[in-house]
């Protein structure tokens, strides 16, 4: 099967890094008209609607023993992080958001060691420490709402990466018997109604006052359909055929694309940001090092 071939796995990692590296700038565009919660809700609702035909088709594969894991995949793996990311990007740049997202493999290894008896080596522990050090440096170097010198909005992304780690380990440990399409479609079968219910409680009148709201909605549509629905099908398939930490390592390539988009959008990238990012990348490299 092609999913078992290393070259194909590498290709999927690069594709996901590009898609998710571009998602931060799409969020920023969407936030020009919509509130952060509306942007997240629209993203989740559109992803759920695109997947709905497959959700209905795959209901026959829904087993009681898988329900908890699918709820974790839907809400901790997508729904809640979507709201955390848009909240964070009201105060921090998309490039910084992309860099902080590199913490996912670090937490994936940590969750695996604590709850799933994942074996580890000394180099991986060193990598874990370096990743956390780099993330702390990125948080401390940000601007926005500050507690002392720490950008508290960056902590929303750190929390999101913790949820991603829990989700990736849960899928690897308990949902590997399902395909990526089955996992994603069944998980979004539960998140769709929650997103719709929330959006019905919000006020869209201010949104319509912006003459460019349709363009901003289009950015969120791309984020929901391509950056969420399609990307998660690929990601969940990758988790099935590789290790949890390997699949999560896509996030250490994401900052490269996020920075590229940030530069094009005239965002300010400092030397400290780049140094901290390199520390994170070195940490994640050590985590994934086999020997």
From TrEMBL:
<dbReference type="InterPro" id="IPR000620">
    <property type="entry name" value="EamA_dom"/>
</dbReference>
<comment type="similarity">
    <text>Belongs to the EamA transporter family.</text>
</comment>
<feature type="transmembrane region" description="Helical">
    <location>
        <begin position="213"/>
        <end position="235"/>
    </location>
</feature>
<feature type="transmembrane region" description="Helical">
    <location>
        <begin position="68"/>
        <end position="88"/>
    </location>
</feature>
<feature type="transmembrane region" description="Helical">
    <location>
        <begin position="270"/>
        <end position="287"/>
    </location>
</feature>
<feature type="transmembrane region" description="Helical">
    <location>
        <begin position="39"/>
        <end position="56"/>
    </location>
</feature>
<feature type="transmembrane region" description="Helical">
    <location>
        <begin position="153"/>
        <end position="171"/>
    </location>
</feature>
<feature type="transmembrane region" description="Helical">
    <location>
        <begin position="183"/>
        <end position="201"/>
    </location>
</feature>
<feature type="transmembrane region" description="Helical">
    <location>
        <begin position="94"/>
        <end position="115"/>
    </location>
</feature>
<feature type="transmembrane region" description="Helical">
    <location>
        <begin position="244"/>
        <end position="264"/>
    </location>
</feature>
<keyword id="KW-0472">Membrane</keyword>
<feature type="domain" description="EamA">
    <location>
        <begin position="153"/>
        <end position="288"/>
    </location>
</feature>
<dbReference type="InterPro" id="IPR050638">
    <property type="entry name" value="AA-Vitamin_Transporters"/>
</dbReference>
<dbReference type="GO" id="GO:0016020">
    <property type="term" value="C:membrane"/>
</dbReference>
<dbReference type="Pfam" id="PF00892">
    <property type="entry name" value="EamA"/>
</dbReference>
<protein>
    <submittedName>
        <fullName>DMT family transporter</fullName>
    </submittedName>
</protein>
<feature type="domain" description="EamA">
    <location>
        <begin position="10"/>
        <end position="138"/>
    </location>
</feature>
<feature type="transmembrane region" description="Helical">
    <location>
        <begin position="7"/>
        <end position="27"/>
    </location>
</feature>
<keyword id="KW-1133">Transmembrane helix</keyword>
<dbReference type="InterPro" id="IPR037185">
    <property type="entry name" value="EmrE-like"/>
</dbReference>
<keyword id="KW-0812">Transmembrane</keyword>
<feature type="transmembrane region" description="Helical">
    <location>
        <begin position="122"/>
        <end position="141"/>
    </location>
</feature>
């Amino acid at each position: 099967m092609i999913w078992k071939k290393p070259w194909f796995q590498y290709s999927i990692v690069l594709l996901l890094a590009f898609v998710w590296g571009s998602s931060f700038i799409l969020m920023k565009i969407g936030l020009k008209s919509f509130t952060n919660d509306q942007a997240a809700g629209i993203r989740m609702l559109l992803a759920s609607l695109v997947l709905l035909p497959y959700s209905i088709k795959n209901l026959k594969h829904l087993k009681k023993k898988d329900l908890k894991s699918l709820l974790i995949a839907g809400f901790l793996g997508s729904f809640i992080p979507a709201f955390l990311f848009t909240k964070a990007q009201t105060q921090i740049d998309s490039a910084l958001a992309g860099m902080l997202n590199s913490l996912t493999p670090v937490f994936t290894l940590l969750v695996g060691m604590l709850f799933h008896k994942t074996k580890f080596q000394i180099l991986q522990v060193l990598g874990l420490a370096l990743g956390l050090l780099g993330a702390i440096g990125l948080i401390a170097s940000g601007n926005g709402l500050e507690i002392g010198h720490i950008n508290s909005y960056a902590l929303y992304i750190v929390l999101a990466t913790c949820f991603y780690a829990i989700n990736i380990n849960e899928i690897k440990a308990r949902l590997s018997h399902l395909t990526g399409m089955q996992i994603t479609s069944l998980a979004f079968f539960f998140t769709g109604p929650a997103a719709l219910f929330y959006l019905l409680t919000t006020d869209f009148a201010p949104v319509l006052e912006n003459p460019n709201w349709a363009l901003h909605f289009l950015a969120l549509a791309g984020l929901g359909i391509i950056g969420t629905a399609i990307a998660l099908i690929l990601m969940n398939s990758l988790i099935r055929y590789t290790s949890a930490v390997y699949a999560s390592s896509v996030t250490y390539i994401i900052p490269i694309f996020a920075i590229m988009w940030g530069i094009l959008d005239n965002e300010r990238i400092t030397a400290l940001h780049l140094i901290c990012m390199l520390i994170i990348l070195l940490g994640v490299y050590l985590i994934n090092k086999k020997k």
